[in-house]
Known about the structure:
2 domains; 20 strands; 9-stranded mixed beta sheet; alpha/beta; 11 helices; Aminopeptidase; globular; metal-binding; single chain
Amino acid sequence: xxxxxxxxxxxxxxxxxxxxxxxxxxxxxxxxxxxxxxxxxxxxxxxxxxxxxxxxxxxxxxxxxxxxxxxxxxxxxxxxxxxxxxxxxxxxxxxxxxxxxxxxxxxxxxxxxxxxxxxxxxxxxxxxxxxxxxxxxxxxxxxxxxxxxxxxxxxxxxxxxxxxxxxxxxxxxxxxxxxxxxxxxxxxxxxxxxxxxxxxxxxxxxxxxxxxxxxxxxxxxxxxxxxxxxxxxxxxxxxxxxxxxxxxxxxxxxxxxxxxxxxxxxxxxxxxxxxxxxxxxxxxxxxxxxxxxxxxxxxxxxxxxxxxxxxxxxxxxxxxxxxxxxxxxxxxxxxxxxxxxxxxxxxxxxxxxxxxxxxxxxxxxxxxxxxxxxxxxxxxxxxxxxxxxxxxxxxxxxxxxxxxxxxxxxxxxxxxxxxxxxxxxxxxxxxxx
Length: 433
């Protein structure tokens, strides 16, 4: 597959995957088309077969049972996360202020708030409702058109805006949806019910019971730059890694046992049923192994590559990076290192990744945060600590991480997919002699 074909598929995925629920839905469609089938609650796993399972509709785990017994050769594993910082709608969101209909929102994760102003926003997520007969039903919803905007305050009313404007998340970022002067405020749940009926003709939608909904930028993902050097999109952190890991798994030859896990809730600590601190991965590995003794052997022989975007060297803020560790866009995937274990990389796992990349003729970079700055983290240390599996943290260099629209190099994701595919197909022990 050419880089152009890869990027077009990536852009399409980013446009459809507007929430973690929609990301999992899109991945399931592609996995099923490639012969993966849902993992049932009983029965033996068969060599050569492909399976997947989901958790909370927002996390996904897919794997291939290789021709050799997995405990003997281990699992080649790639991990990523499906969630991104965003604005989520509160349970009782309707507000009528100064003649405008607005919705109250809660900030999810460490969002960069200023870029949310003056964007054409739409709304998507999961809704629970009473179906015919009063039973509980759930469905995904996506309005797929601009519904709202958070207007900036004009500079004439805040002359210090360019020097010192802060954002109060309780009062300053309520999206405006309509003019409602002299009217009763609209019922948001009625709006949801109407949209569900539009998306699912014939679906009997009774009372809306609850929802998990987030606003998103309706501008599509795109290639930008004079030579198409960049990918600009919402949710590159970390749907780019989810797609890259999935593409590599779909291209795997199936000789070796390999696995992809895409967890929700990484941006808020990973402690949930669907998060990396939950039981999804370890319980699945236990089933693959077949016994606790075999699980121990499987863990010892396995390796995880945790893929999560890295901070690219910003040309306007080069001093925010360590002098020797400023990754450039389109210069290869980044090995992320932190002495205080905010990343799970060690010399062994980093060295193995470098060898894989060399065989694909893909350059590799390194990232170490400035010693006088705090370091973020990933699912890598959580997975390593919870399972005992050797883990490496890598990522594609990115600008504007946690903004409503982020920027990555147009060559990096395809190159990373090639390295991950080689990892999935690697024959022989992952343990040094």
